[in-house]
């Protein structure tokens, strides 16, 4: 336990300082751009656009954080410090757990920053305390799932040229953008061509943003909640063991 | 304390880094693994430190098999690599506290241990500066200290003095000697014959992934030859005449490009004076006559008994 605390502390001390500006500015920047560019173009019915778009801003920022995690996992894997960790009598889980705790902390900072900027533009949590808590838990669960994926990818590519360059995140930006753009996070499903509806409707970003919107309003569709949870828990169940395996494989 | 039996390591099925490496190091002694870059020194240490699995063979460290019982091996060893394995963003003291806590110490105990190590390594003037601002020698010292937060049974030092100035090198040598005096078994790698000679109780020479010689420094020196006596005439045309009068001596060799004749000097100055006497009788004018230690290359030539390296 003391080893886990020490490693987590180390990440907070040395890494959060670099990440903090990004964790705060990314949600503000993304929210302002989405809101200014799209609020008059996209019809979200009764709901104000800030109320509609904030969840996808949060998801977008979680994605961007995960991209940083990819490069960092690759670098940690290659660094002499990382090599020495593998000669210590530590469980393979300990460094991974420390990195995940750190990702959750950074995610929480980004979440608070997102909600703060949202509030300034009219976003409101009207569902009560329980719904607000569920909102945070869902966002952080999604953060954990993506961070595990990012960690596994980063550790896996560490031996390859792209891992040494630290540029994997730039390639992964493409699928990330596609998932966010082709979701109901920024615009209702009716604004997409018919043949895309099944994908747009059921992909994880759409389902999770929809559920976050539900928690913010206090009106949640059971079907949507179940699909979101299935996505989050499914990703955790698949990615968790892969991330742990990646740690073991390199030992 | 350390035992290797037929250890081999092949990368990607084709690149053979180690072949049939066997040697042992007794408890409390210092063993130097001597070899050129790429000879397999680092691979050997990585296998012993559980960072690499041997392709075949068996390796035992502190009584534990490196493949079967890696956790027990890790609990028994300390290691420093060729590059400092520290968090450069943290100070030297913070690094030592961190590594102490990674070995399971509570924060207070870890701080006390860090203080003790800082004293022991005479680093109090720099302990609270970030490691990124340290000189290479200071980084190396903190790096070694970090491997000692819990006194290991076996300490691996991979080229501990490469890139250090003579004073820092001397400091590392002192550290190794005092650790050995405390009963720590040390395995270090080096490219320098002199370093192996000063520090170690036994030397293993490896080349192209094979052990080509084992023994004490004295054994090896005897096999390598103590030193060379080299003669250089003012006039290069005298070289063959000089070679003729010393040709019967052991290891006589004429190098026309360098304009030198060398012979092995097992009796040191006595050999030198004999060579001088013979050359003097020729009445040849000399530019230089000197004794010099064999280079690592010459040692390898002797040990491998070939001229292909």
Element pattern of chain A in H and E: HHHHHHHHHH
Give the uncertain stretches of chain B in residue-range form.
none
Chain pair with largest interface = A-B, 20 and 30 residues
| Share of helical residues of chain A | over 70%
Q: Which CATH architecture of the largest domain in chain B?
A: 3-Layer(aba) Sandwich
Helix and strand content put the structural class of chain A at: mainly alpha
Distance between the termini of chain A: 21 Å
Name the structural class of chain B. Answer: alpha/beta
Number of strands of chain B: 14
> Into which percentage range does the β-strand content of chain A fall?
under 5%
Q: Helices and strands in order, then pairings?
A:
The complex is a heterodimer of chains A (251) and B (309).
Chain A: H1 2-38, H2 49-78, H3 80-85, H4 93-120, H5 129-157, H6 161-165, H7 168-181, H8 197-202, H9 204-217, H10 222-249
Helix pairs in contact in A: 1-2, 1-4, 2-4, 2-5, 2-7, 2-9, 4-5, 5-9, 5-10, 9-10
Chain B: E1 2-11, E2 15-25, E3 30-34, H1 41-48, E4 56-61, E5 64-65, H2 70-76, E6 77-80, H3 92-102, H4 107-120, H5 136-146, E7 154-158, H6 166-181, E8 185-190, H7 193-199, E9 202-207, E10 210-215, H8 217-224, E11 228-233, H9 239-246, E12 253-255, E13 260-264, H10 269-282, E14 286-292, H11 296-304
Parallel strand pairs in B: 3-8, 3-9, 6-7, 7-8
Antiparallel strand pairs in B: 1-2, 1-4, 4-5, 9-10, 11-13, 11-14, 12-13
Helix pairs in contact in B: 3-4, 3-5, 9-10
């Amino acid at each position: 336990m003391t080893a886990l605390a020490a490693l987590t502390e180390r990440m907070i001390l040395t890494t959060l300082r670099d990440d903090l500006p990004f964790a705060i500015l990314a949600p503000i920047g993304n929210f302002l751009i989405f809101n200014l560019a799209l609020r008059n173009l996209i019809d979200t019915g009764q709901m104000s656009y800030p109320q509609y778009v904030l969840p996808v801003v949060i998801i977008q920022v979680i994605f961007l954080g995960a991209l940083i995690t990819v490069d960092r996992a690759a670098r940690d894997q290659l660094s002499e410090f990382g090599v020495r960790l593998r000669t210590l009598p530590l469980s393979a889980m300990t460094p991974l757990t420390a990195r995940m705790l750190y990702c959750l902390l950074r995610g929480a900072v980004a979440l608070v920053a997102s909600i703060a900027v949202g509030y300034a533009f009219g976003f409101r949590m009207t569902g009560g305390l329980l719904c607000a808590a569920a909102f945070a838990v869902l966002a952080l669960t999604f953060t954990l799932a993506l961070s595990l994926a990012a960690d596994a990818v980063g550790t896996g590519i560490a031996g390859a040229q792209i891992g040494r360059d630290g540029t994997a995140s730039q390639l992964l930006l493409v699928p990330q953008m596609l998932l966010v753009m082709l979701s109901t996070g920024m615009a209702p499903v009716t604004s997409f061509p018919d043949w895309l509806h099944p994908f747009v409707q059921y992909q994880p970003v759409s389902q999770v943003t929809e559920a976050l919107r539900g928690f913010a309003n206090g009106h949640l569709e059971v079907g949507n909640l179940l699909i979101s949870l299935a996505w989050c828990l499914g990703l955790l169940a698949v990615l968790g063991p892969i991330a742990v395996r990646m740690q073991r494989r390199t030992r | 304390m350390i035992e290797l039996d037929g250890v081999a390591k092949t990368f990607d099925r084709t690149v053979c880094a180690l072949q049939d490496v066997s040697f042992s190091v007794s408890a409390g002694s210092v063993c130097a693994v001597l070899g050129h870059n790429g000879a397999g020194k680092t691979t050997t240490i990585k296998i012993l430190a559980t960072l690499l699995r041997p392709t075949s063979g068996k390796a035992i460290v502190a009584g534990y098999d490196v493949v079967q019982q890696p956790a027990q091996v890790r609990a028994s060893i300390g290691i420093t690599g060729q590059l400092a394995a520290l968090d450069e963003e943290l100070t030297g003291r913070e690094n030592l506290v961190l590594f102490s806590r990674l070995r399971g110490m509570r924060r207070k105990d870890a701080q006390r241990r860090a203080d003790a190590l800082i004293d022991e390594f005479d680093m109090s003037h720099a302990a609270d500066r970030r490691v990124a601002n340290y000189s290479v020698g200071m980084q190396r010292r903190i790096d070694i200290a970090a491997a000692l937060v819990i006194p290991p049974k076996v300490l691996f030092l991979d080229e501990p003095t490469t890139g250090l100035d003579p004073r820092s090198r001397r400091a590392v040598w002192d550290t190794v000697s005092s650790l050995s005096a405390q009963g720590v078994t040390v395995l270090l790698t080096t490219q320098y014959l002199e370093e192996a000679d000063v520090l170690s109780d036994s030397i293993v020479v490896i080349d192209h992934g094979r052990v080509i010689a084992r023994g004490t420094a004295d054994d090896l020196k005897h096999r390598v030859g103590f030193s060379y006596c080299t003669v250089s005439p003012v006039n290069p045309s005298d070289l063959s005449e000089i070679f003729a009068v010393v040709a019967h001596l052991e290891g006589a060799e004429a190098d026309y490009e360098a304009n030198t004749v060398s012979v092995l000097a097992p009796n040191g100055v006595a050999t030198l004076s004999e060579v001088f006497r013979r050359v003097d009788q020729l009445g040849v004018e000399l530019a230089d006559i000197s004794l010099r230690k064999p280079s690592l290359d010459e040692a390898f030539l002797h040990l491998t008994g070939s001229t292909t390296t």
